[in-house]
């Protein structure tokens, strides 16, 4: 059973376990929590080889990236604009998809300028509203190569199925029916 | 029907996330938390290297494991008193104030804090072993930071 929390009304939501923090809030807490990050790299030493830098350097870079990423999102949330487009931050997860794909599986990079460490994964609804499903520190080139990544893919599919089962009408589906 | 209403129909009542409040707090506290996080990281690394658990460290510091946990998350606004206690317990220098040189202008010289980890010398002949970094407390003196970091 899924529950949702509102980040920006009508624009951005995040999955949550009932009465617990949502995944969006949790990601930004963990990505700026030194103990969490230190444990993460102690438990995943191979990740350091993937990035080619030391543990301390990785942790410092992640905290910096998370801070900037969060400030970008906060500035969008505080802008008060009704026509906020999160499409400038998110992009299609799968290369064959685009913004016309219903229930689009999407991702956002923590740092657009370089590969970076952080990713958010979301379902995009056809009106540009996003549901954050998961976030992670990238540890492999492709999501399928890590257990965490496979779990993200599973969750994305599960949320899409949940929306369909609960008769959520994505407008593109309606358009297809009309045509 | 709005997207919000459609989502409520599917997921049930949607409450507001705590993220924005938390993010605004983090943004306000970022300047000093940056130091706190660096200090926490140096302590965590040191504990890892010497193989000391956080529980043992808490006991050595005569504080609860919960307090150590808070320190090591990087969210503690440490007092100088606490930093001195940490340095003594770990035999580690966590911060230091850069002294002015005789030539420098009293009013133009920024104060620097060297965060973390160089071992204290065992004798007066042994130099400090710097493994940490120098942090410029005043961003308006970037050139000074660069020259010191060299």
Keyphrases for this structure?
heterodimer, A: alpha+beta, six-stranded mixed beta sheet, 6 helices, 6 strands, 20% strand, globular, B: 150 residues, mainly alpha, two-stranded antiparallel sheet, 51% helix, disordered C terminus
Question: Could you characterize what this model shows?
Answer:
The complex is a heterodimer of chains A (179) and B (150). Chain A is α+β, with helices and mostly antiparallel strands and 179 residues long. Chain A contains 6 helices and 6 strands. A 6-stranded mixed β-sheet of chain A has the order 1-2-6-5-4-3, with helices on both faces. In chain A, helix 2 packs across helix 4. The radius of gyration of chain A is 17 Å and the shape is globular. Chain B has helices spanning 3-11, 19-50, 54-61, 65-73, 80-90, 142-149; strands at residues 15-16, 92-93, 112-115, 118-119, 129-130, 133-136. In chain B, the strands form 2 sheets. In chain B, strands 2-4-5 form a 3-stranded antiparallel β-sheet. In chain B, strands 3-6 form a two-stranded antiparallel ribbon. Chain B is elongated. Chain B starts with a helix and ends with a helix. In chain B, 20% of the residues are buried. The model of chain B is unreliable at 108-112 and 123-150 (pLDDT under 50). Classes of the chains: A alpha+beta (179), B mainly alpha (150). Chains A and B meet through strand 1, strand 2, helix 1, helix 2 and helix 4 of A and helix 1, strand 1, helix 2 and helix 4 of B. Strand 1 of chain A pairs parallel with strand 1 of chain B, so a sheet runs across the interface.
